[in-house]
């Protein structure tokens, strides 16, 4: 199925390539000449009307967009996992998470990996991961570090781990995910879980779509992401990393936040929305610029 989607996409690009010179013919006085553009092995060479340099331009566009098509079926895999750790197992579990993070971030297929504890409930730990593909995540699952963590799950937790599979909205690049606070910063990471009333979720996404560039442009923001939690489409979680608590307070009073707050005050299933707020303290990787 994925191969057929890829082929269909490339065919549409080739059709665009054929149509483009004809459109340009009516828009300029450029003299066109007939050239041949070789297709893939399963297609015959065809002729199109193009200017001397147009063939090169079209082929470049096709190659670039076909590359995008080739990656379209390999979305970023984002996973957020909560661990409720038993008393007496804290140190070994933190050490295992630190090993997971420090190993993962050295791998080409990893976009980001971070471990946290709840500020007001240190026995609750979180692992946040993003991988370039499901294949990369599966490969890491077979690592020594992952197996060591899996072994601890049998004895170190008060309840089974809770994994959230995410789809990032307004997604970030690997470079953006790897942005780090400055050495002088005292960073605070905040997550807000949102359980929206059915029928209002698109309003929530639209509101964030407008606000997101402004949020990310704040001087005190290191990273800001909104993700949809896999399910019925009404659950979301934010990831907000600030340079300091003062930066977080500034954000709360930042005018573009107002429409988001107004939505949250009226449209979550179980108000107040602040119940979904989690202040996190970083365990790993503790990277600083």
Automatic annotation (TrEMBL):
<dbReference type="InterPro" id="IPR007138">
    <property type="entry name" value="ABM_dom"/>
</dbReference>
<dbReference type="Pfam" id="PF03992">
    <property type="entry name" value="ABM"/>
</dbReference>
<dbReference type="GO" id="GO:0004497">
    <property type="term" value="F:monooxygenase activity"/>
</dbReference>
<feature type="domain" description="ABM">
    <location>
        <begin position="77"/>
        <end position="166"/>
    </location>
</feature>
<protein>
    <submittedName>
        <fullName>Quinol monooxygenase YgiN</fullName>
    </submittedName>
</protein>
<dbReference type="InterPro" id="IPR011008">
    <property type="entry name" value="Dimeric_a/b-barrel"/>
</dbReference>
<dbReference type="InterPro" id="IPR050744">
    <property type="entry name" value="AI-2_Isomerase_LsrG"/>
</dbReference>
<keyword id="KW-0503">Monooxygenase</keyword>
<feature type="domain" description="ABM">
    <location>
        <begin position="188"/>
        <end position="277"/>
    </location>
</feature>
<keyword id="KW-0560">Oxidoreductase</keyword>
């Amino acid at each position: 199925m994925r191969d057929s989607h890829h082929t269909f996409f490339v065919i549409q690009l080739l059709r665009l390539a054929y149509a483009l010179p004809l459109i340009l013919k009516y828009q300029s006085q450029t003299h066109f000449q007939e050239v041949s553009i070789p297709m893939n092995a399963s297609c015959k060479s065809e002729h199109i009307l193009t200017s001397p340099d147009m063939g090169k331009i079209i082929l470049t566009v096709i190659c670039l967009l076909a590359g995008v098509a080739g990656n379209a079926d390999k979305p970023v895999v984002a996973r957020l996992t909560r661990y409720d750790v038993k008393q007496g197992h804290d140190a070994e579990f933190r050490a295992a998470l630190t090993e997971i993070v420090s190993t993962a971030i050295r791998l080409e297929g990893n976009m980001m990996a971070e471990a946290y504890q709840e500020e007001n409930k240190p026995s609750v730990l979180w692992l946040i991961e993003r991988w370039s593909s499901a294949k990369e995540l599966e490969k890491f699952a077979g690592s020594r570090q992952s197996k060591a963590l899996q072994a601890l799950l049998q004895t170190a937790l008060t309840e089974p781990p809770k994994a959230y599979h995410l789809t990032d909205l307004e997604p970030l690049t690997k470079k953006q995910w790897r942005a780090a606070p400055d050495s002088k910063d005292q960073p605070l990471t905040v997550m807000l879980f949102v359980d929206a009333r059915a029928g209002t979720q698109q309003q929530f996404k639209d509101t964030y779509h407008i606000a997101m560039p402004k949020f990310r442009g704040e001087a005190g923001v290191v990273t800001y992401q909104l993700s949809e939690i896999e399910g019925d489409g009404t659950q979301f979680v934010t990831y907000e990393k600030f340079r300091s608590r003062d930066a977080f307070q500034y954000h709360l009073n930042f005018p573009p936040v107002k429409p988001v707050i107004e939505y949250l005050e009226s449209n979550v299933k179980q108000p107040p929305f602040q119940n979904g707020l989690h202040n996190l303290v970083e365990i790993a990787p503790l990277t600083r610029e």
